[in-house]
Inverse folding.
């Protein structure tokens, strides 16, 4: 079973700053298909990044994703006020078929 | 643009069966997509419940498999979720979502529906 660890649980930044969020997977043989989602209070998750580094349709280019082994990173180059939200990473394992989420990182305004 | 809309009772008695439907518009459940159900307890993270393909292939989260039934109705263009023997731990916002073709991610989500298990 894949375990995704997002740390820290909360990050504080000011608008305009660069934010880097981390997601570490527990299995080196796990899929590279890591996805990132943004969730605002009372809303459904919104797909930001898939395949570790591909931006979903309509996502601004200030959002980017990268991978190094089992370590995945979501970078927001210049924080806008609307970017303060909770971010989840998600990965797939095939045996048995299973989708796993990290516990989330809350991005709050400093 | 595909849209998903969950519906069902907002309050379910303990030990009863939770039943939800997800209506799909602007797209077809018979497309080359998997369709999934998720849940999120208040203030907590996301949990995948299971997925269905229009051919009838279904996969369940092993931790819920004994209590979950997911189905797809191509004539109504919707999918359904049933969760039996519910307890307070099953209280959550339940979402349906579309799997992104060819990738293990979910690109369209319903708005979610809160289901509370309480007598």
């Amino acid at each position: 079973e894949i375990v995704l660890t997002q740390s820290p649980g909360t990050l504080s930044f000011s608008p305009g700053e660069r934010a880097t969020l981390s997601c570490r997977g527990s299995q080196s043989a796990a899929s590279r298909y890591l996805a990132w989602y943004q969730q605002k209070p009372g809303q459904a998750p919104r797909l930001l990044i898939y395949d570790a580094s591909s931006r979903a349709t309509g996502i601004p280019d200030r959002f980017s994703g990268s991978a190094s082994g089992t370590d995945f990173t979501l970078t927001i180059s210049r924080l806008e006020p609307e970017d303060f939200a909770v971010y989840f990473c998600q990965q797939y394992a095939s045996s048995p078929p299973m989708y796993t989420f990290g516990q989330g990182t809350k991005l709050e305004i400093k | 643009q595909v849209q998903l809309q969950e519906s069902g009772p907002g309050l379910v008695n303990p030990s009863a069966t939770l039943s939800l439907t997800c209506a799909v518009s602007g797209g077809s459940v018979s497309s080359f997509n998997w369709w999934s159900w998720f849940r999120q307890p208040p203030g907590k993270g996301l949990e995948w419940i299971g997925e269905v393909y229009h051919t009838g292939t279904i996969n369940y989260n092993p931790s819920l498999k004994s209590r979950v039934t997911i189905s797809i109705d191509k004539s109504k263009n919707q999918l359904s979720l049933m969760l039996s023997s519910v307890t307070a731990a099953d209280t959550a916002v339940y979402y349906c979502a579309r799997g992104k073709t060819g990738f293990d991610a979910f690109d369209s989500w319903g708005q979610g529906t809160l289901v509370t298990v309480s007598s």
Notes: Chain A has a mean pLDDT of 93.
